[in-house]
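Sample entry copied in:
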Amino acid sequence: MKTILKPKKTNLVIGMAFLMLIPIFSRGQNLISNSDFNSGTTPWNVNGMLVEINTEKTYGGVSKTNQTAEIDNSAGLRQKIGIAVGKVYQLTFKASRRRSGGTPANPGITVDVIGDVTGTSYLNNNKIYTNTTFAFTDEVLTFTIPSSSTDNIIVVQFTSYNNSTTLGVIVDDVTLTVASSLPVQLISFTGELNNGQSTLRWKTTSELNNKYFIVERSVSGSLFDSIGLVKAAVTNNSTKTYTFTDMKTNVGTTPDAPADLPPLSTELLAPDLTLSQPVTVAIKEVPLVRLVTYKHLYA
Protein backbone atom coordinates (compact mmCIF):
# COMPACT_ATOMS: atom_id res chain seq x y z
CA MET A 1 0.00 0.00 0.00
CA LYS A 2 1.41 3.36 -0.96
CA THR A 3 1.40 6.41 1.30
CA ILE A 4 0.90 9.91 -0.09
CA LEU A 5 1.44 13.02 2.02
CA LYS A 6 0.06 16.15 0.37
CA PRO A 7 2.01 19.42 0.58
CA LYS A 8 0.70 22.21 2.79
CA LYS A 9 -1.35 25.03 1.26
CA THR A 10 1.24 27.75 0.91
CA ASN A 11 3.26 29.53 -1.71
CA LEU A 12 5.37 26.83 -3.36
CA VAL A 13 8.65 26.62 -5.15
CA ILE A 14 8.04 24.48 -8.21
CA GLY A 15 10.52 23.01 -10.64
CA MET A 16 9.88 20.50 -13.36
CA ALA A 17 12.37 18.37 -15.17
CA PHE A 18 11.58 15.64 -17.67
CA LEU A 19 14.14 12.92 -18.13
CA MET A 20 13.99 10.47 -21.00
CA LEU A 21 15.72 7.13 -21.36
CA ILE A 22 16.30 5.57 -24.77
CA PRO A 23 18.07 2.24 -25.34
CA ILE A 24 20.13 2.36 -28.52
CA PHE A 25 22.20 -0.22 -30.33
CA SER A 26 22.62 -0.21 -34.05
CA ARG A 27 22.94 2.58 -36.57
CA GLY A 28 21.72 2.38 -40.12
CA GLN A 29 22.58 4.34 -43.23
CA ASN A 30 24.19 7.72 -42.71
CA LEU A 31 21.78 10.34 -44.09
CA ILE A 32 24.39 13.12 -44.03
CA SER A 33 26.13 13.92 -47.32
CA ASN A 34 29.84 14.76 -47.28
CA SER A 35 30.02 13.86 -43.59
CA ASP A 36 33.85 13.86 -43.58
CA PHE A 37 34.22 17.11 -45.62
CA ASN A 38 36.40 15.40 -48.23
CA SER A 39 34.14 16.70 -51.01
CA GLY A 40 34.44 20.39 -50.19
CA THR A 41 31.73 22.68 -48.84
CA THR A 42 28.71 21.26 -50.71
CA PRO A 43 26.03 20.57 -49.47
CA TRP A 44 26.89 22.21 -46.14
CA ASN A 45 26.43 25.69 -47.61
CA VAL A 46 22.62 25.71 -47.85
CA ASN A 47 21.03 29.18 -47.87
CA GLY A 48 24.36 30.95 -48.17
CA MET A 49 26.03 29.46 -45.10
CA LEU A 50 29.74 30.28 -45.16
CA VAL A 51 31.71 27.05 -44.72
CA GLU A 52 35.39 26.84 -43.77
CA ILE A 53 37.18 23.52 -44.39
CA ASN A 54 40.86 22.82 -43.79
CA THR A 55 43.07 19.99 -42.64
CA GLU A 56 43.13 19.07 -38.99
CA LYS A 57 46.75 20.26 -38.83
CA THR A 58 45.64 23.80 -39.76
CA TYR A 59 43.65 24.01 -36.54
CA GLY A 60 46.27 22.55 -34.21
CA GLY A 61 45.71 18.85 -34.79
CA VAL A 62 48.10 16.18 -36.03
CA SER A 63 46.80 14.98 -39.40
CA LYS A 64 47.85 16.83 -42.55
CA THR A 65 45.24 15.01 -44.66
CA ASN A 66 42.10 14.73 -42.53
CA GLN A 67 39.60 17.40 -43.65
CA THR A 68 37.64 19.19 -40.91
CA ALA A 69 35.27 22.15 -40.61
CA GLU A 70 35.54 25.11 -38.26
CA ILE A 71 32.52 26.60 -36.49
CA ASP A 72 33.11 30.21 -35.48
CA ASN A 73 31.54 33.66 -35.62
CA SER A 74 31.74 33.75 -39.41
CA ALA A 75 31.51 30.10 -40.51
CA GLY A 76 29.16 27.22 -39.84
CA LEU A 77 27.43 24.21 -41.38
CA ARG A 78 23.92 23.83 -42.77
CA GLN A 79 22.49 20.90 -44.75
CA LYS A 80 18.99 19.80 -45.81
CA ILE A 81 18.18 16.10 -45.41
CA GLY A 82 15.21 14.00 -46.43
CA ILE A 83 13.82 11.90 -43.57
CA ALA A 84 10.85 9.72 -42.59
CA VAL A 85 8.48 10.88 -39.86
CA GLY A 86 7.69 8.82 -36.78
CA LYS A 87 11.33 7.96 -36.13
CA VAL A 88 13.96 8.57 -33.46
CA TYR A 89 17.17 9.90 -35.02
CA GLN A 90 20.73 9.89 -33.73
CA LEU A 91 23.12 12.70 -34.67
CA THR A 92 26.80 12.10 -33.95
CA PHE A 93 29.94 14.13 -34.59
CA LYS A 94 33.43 14.81 -33.27
CA ALA A 95 34.42 18.22 -31.95
CA SER A 96 37.48 19.92 -30.47
CA ARG A 97 38.48 23.42 -29.44
CA ARG A 98 40.88 24.89 -32.01
CA ARG A 99 44.44 25.00 -30.73
CA SER A 100 46.09 27.57 -32.95
CA GLY A 101 45.84 31.31 -33.58
CA GLY A 102 44.71 32.50 -30.13
CA THR A 103 41.39 30.66 -29.80
CA PRO A 104 39.17 31.78 -26.86
CA ALA A 105 39.30 29.55 -23.77
CA ASN A 106 35.76 28.20 -24.03
CA PRO A 107 34.25 28.50 -27.53
CA GLY A 108 31.08 26.59 -28.25
CA ILE A 109 28.66 25.46 -30.92
CA THR A 110 24.89 25.30 -31.23
CA VAL A 111 23.46 22.25 -32.96
CA ASP A 112 19.97 22.71 -34.42
CA VAL A 113 17.59 20.41 -36.25
CA ILE A 114 14.71 22.34 -37.81
CA GLY A 115 11.74 21.22 -39.88
CA ASP A 116 12.07 22.62 -43.39
CA VAL A 117 8.30 22.89 -43.87
CA THR A 118 7.03 23.93 -40.43
CA GLY A 119 10.11 25.52 -38.91
CA THR A 120 9.69 23.30 -35.85
CA SER A 121 12.77 22.97 -33.65
CA TYR A 122 13.41 19.26 -33.07
CA LEU A 123 16.83 19.74 -31.50
CA ASN A 124 18.61 22.74 -30.00
CA ASN A 125 21.77 21.88 -28.10
CA ASN A 126 24.73 23.99 -26.97
CA LYS A 127 28.19 22.50 -26.46
CA ILE A 128 31.29 24.22 -25.03
CA TYR A 129 34.86 22.96 -25.46
CA THR A 130 37.74 23.85 -23.16
CA ASN A 131 40.41 21.30 -24.12
CA THR A 132 43.93 22.70 -23.96
CA THR A 133 45.36 20.18 -26.42
CA PHE A 134 43.73 19.26 -29.71
CA ALA A 135 41.48 16.28 -28.93
CA PHE A 136 38.16 15.30 -30.46
CA THR A 137 35.18 14.60 -28.20
CA ASP A 138 32.58 12.14 -29.51
CA GLU A 139 29.11 13.69 -29.27
CA VAL A 140 25.78 11.84 -29.51
CA LEU A 141 22.44 13.68 -29.73
CA THR A 142 18.98 12.28 -30.37
CA PHE A 143 15.69 13.76 -31.51
CA THR A 144 12.28 12.54 -32.61
CA ILE A 145 10.21 13.49 -35.65
CA PRO A 146 6.59 12.75 -34.62
CA SER A 147 4.37 10.70 -36.89
CA SER A 148 2.03 13.68 -37.18
CA SER A 149 4.76 15.94 -38.56
CA THR A 150 4.62 17.25 -42.13
CA ASP A 151 8.39 17.75 -42.20
CA ASN A 152 9.85 15.19 -44.59
CA ILE A 153 12.93 17.40 -44.91
CA ILE A 154 14.96 18.74 -42.00
CA VAL A 155 17.78 21.24 -41.73
CA VAL A 156 20.82 20.19 -39.67
CA GLN A 157 22.79 23.25 -38.63
CA PHE A 158 25.99 23.99 -36.68
CA THR A 159 26.60 27.60 -35.63
CA SER A 160 28.88 29.42 -33.20
CA TYR A 161 28.01 29.71 -29.50
CA ASN A 162 29.75 31.70 -26.75
CA ASN A 163 32.28 33.00 -29.26
CA SER A 164 32.55 36.36 -31.04
CA THR A 165 35.80 35.54 -32.85
CA THR A 166 36.75 33.71 -36.05
CA LEU A 167 38.64 31.07 -34.04
CA GLY A 168 36.37 28.39 -32.69
CA VAL A 169 35.44 24.71 -32.66
CA ILE A 170 36.61 22.06 -35.14
CA VAL A 171 34.02 19.48 -36.26
CA ASP A 172 34.44 16.20 -38.14
CA ASP A 173 32.60 12.98 -39.09
CA VAL A 174 28.98 14.10 -38.83
CA THR A 175 26.44 11.28 -39.07
CA LEU A 176 22.64 11.10 -38.94
CA THR A 177 20.97 7.72 -38.63
CA VAL A 178 17.70 6.19 -37.52
CA ALA A 179 18.14 4.96 -33.96
CA SER A 180 17.03 1.36 -33.48
CA SER A 181 15.20 0.73 -30.21
CA LEU A 182 15.82 -2.87 -29.18
CA PRO A 183 14.09 -5.33 -26.81
CA VAL A 184 14.70 -4.28 -23.21
CA GLN A 185 12.62 -5.65 -20.32
CA LEU A 186 12.32 -2.66 -17.95
CA ILE A 187 10.86 -3.41 -14.50
CA SER A 188 11.37 -0.04 -12.78
CA PHE A 189 12.41 3.52 -13.61
CA THR A 190 12.57 5.99 -10.71
CA GLY A 191 13.65 9.57 -10.19
CA GLU A 192 14.81 11.37 -7.05
CA LEU A 193 15.47 15.11 -6.74
CA ASN A 194 17.96 16.32 -4.11
CA ASN A 195 19.49 19.81 -3.93
CA GLY A 196 18.76 20.49 -7.57
CA GLN A 197 20.28 17.20 -8.77
CA SER A 198 18.15 14.47 -10.33
CA THR A 199 19.19 10.87 -9.85
CA LEU A 200 17.69 8.25 -12.14
CA ARG A 201 17.65 4.57 -11.31
CA TRP A 202 16.30 1.84 -13.53
CA LYS A 203 16.32 -1.95 -13.60
CA THR A 204 16.14 -4.39 -16.47
CA THR A 205 15.56 -8.14 -16.37
CA SER A 206 16.75 -8.83 -19.89
CA GLU A 207 18.50 -6.99 -22.70
CA LEU A 208 19.23 -8.05 -26.26
CA ASN A 209 22.04 -6.31 -28.16
CA ASN A 210 21.59 -3.13 -26.11
CA LYS A 211 24.77 -1.08 -26.54
CA TYR A 212 23.97 1.85 -24.23
CA PHE A 213 21.21 4.08 -22.86
CA ILE A 214 20.86 7.73 -23.81
CA VAL A 215 19.57 10.00 -21.06
CA GLU A 216 17.77 13.17 -22.17
CA ARG A 217 16.47 16.21 -20.30
CA SER A 218 13.69 18.68 -21.11
CA VAL A 219 12.22 21.65 -19.28
CA SER A 220 9.27 22.00 -21.67
CA GLY A 221 8.46 18.31 -21.95
CA SER A 222 8.61 18.46 -25.74
CA LEU A 223 12.18 19.41 -26.70
CA PHE A 224 14.83 17.09 -25.25
CA ASP A 225 18.62 17.46 -25.02
CA SER A 226 20.97 14.52 -24.57
CA ILE A 227 22.84 14.84 -21.27
CA GLY A 228 24.66 11.54 -20.99
CA LEU A 229 25.33 7.97 -22.03
CA VAL A 230 25.21 4.91 -19.80
CA LYS A 231 26.93 1.77 -21.05
CA ALA A 232 24.55 -1.18 -21.15
CA ALA A 233 24.98 -4.90 -20.60
CA VAL A 234 24.62 -5.60 -24.36
CA THR A 235 22.93 -8.98 -23.82
CA ASN A 236 21.78 -9.99 -20.36
CA ASN A 237 19.12 -12.30 -18.86
CA SER A 238 19.38 -11.34 -15.19
CA THR A 239 18.38 -8.26 -13.20
CA LYS A 240 20.71 -5.31 -13.73
CA THR A 241 20.54 -1.87 -12.10
CA TYR A 242 21.65 1.39 -13.70
CA THR A 243 22.02 4.91 -12.26
CA PHE A 244 22.59 8.35 -13.70
CA THR A 245 22.82 11.74 -11.94
CA ASP A 246 21.90 14.96 -13.72
CA MET A 247 23.94 17.67 -11.98
CA LYS A 248 22.11 20.56 -13.63
CA THR A 249 18.38 19.94 -13.28
CA ASN A 250 16.53 23.16 -14.10
CA VAL A 251 14.40 24.45 -11.25
CA GLY A 252 12.27 27.58 -11.61
CA THR A 253 10.06 29.50 -9.17
CA THR A 254 6.53 30.75 -9.13
CA PRO A 255 5.19 32.83 -6.21
CA ASP A 256 1.52 32.06 -6.80
CA ALA A 257 1.48 28.30 -7.25
CA PRO A 258 -1.86 26.52 -6.74
CA ALA A 259 -2.26 24.97 -3.31
CA ASP A 260 -3.63 21.62 -4.51
CA LEU A 261 -0.83 20.07 -6.52
CA PRO A 262 -1.17 16.61 -8.03
CA PRO A 263 0.99 13.93 -6.39
CA LEU A 264 4.51 13.49 -7.63
CA SER A 265 4.47 10.99 -10.45
CA THR A 266 6.77 8.72 -12.37
CA GLU A 267 5.58 7.33 -15.67
CA LEU A 268 6.65 3.70 -15.82
CA LEU A 269 6.39 1.07 -18.47
CA ALA A 270 4.48 -1.84 -16.96
CA PRO A 271 6.52 -4.95 -16.11
CA ASP A 272 6.74 -7.73 -18.68
CA LEU A 273 6.50 -5.32 -21.61
CA THR A 274 9.29 -4.74 -24.08
CA LEU A 275 10.57 -1.17 -24.12
CA SER A 276 9.88 0.25 -27.56
CA GLN A 277 9.25 3.92 -26.81
CA PRO A 278 11.15 6.46 -24.68
CA VAL A 279 10.22 6.38 -20.99
CA THR A 280 9.80 9.74 -19.27
CA VAL A 281 10.21 10.63 -15.61
CA ALA A 282 8.51 13.86 -14.52
CA ILE A 283 9.64 15.41 -11.23
CA LYS A 284 7.93 18.27 -9.40
CA GLU A 285 9.59 19.76 -6.32
CA VAL A 286 7.82 21.58 -3.48
CA PRO A 287 9.15 22.54 -0.01
CA LEU A 288 9.98 19.48 2.12
CA VAL A 289 8.75 17.16 -0.59
CA ARG A 290 10.85 14.96 -2.83
CA LEU A 291 10.31 11.93 -5.01
CA VAL A 292 11.82 8.90 -3.32
CA THR A 293 10.62 5.88 -5.27
CA TYR A 294 8.33 4.99 -8.13
CA LYS A 295 5.68 4.15 -5.54
CA HIS A 296 5.09 7.91 -5.09
CA LEU A 297 6.31 8.07 -1.47
CA TYR A 298 6.96 11.48 0.03
CA ALA A 299 9.63 12.46 2.56
Q: What stands out?
A: The chain is about 0% helix and 45% strand.
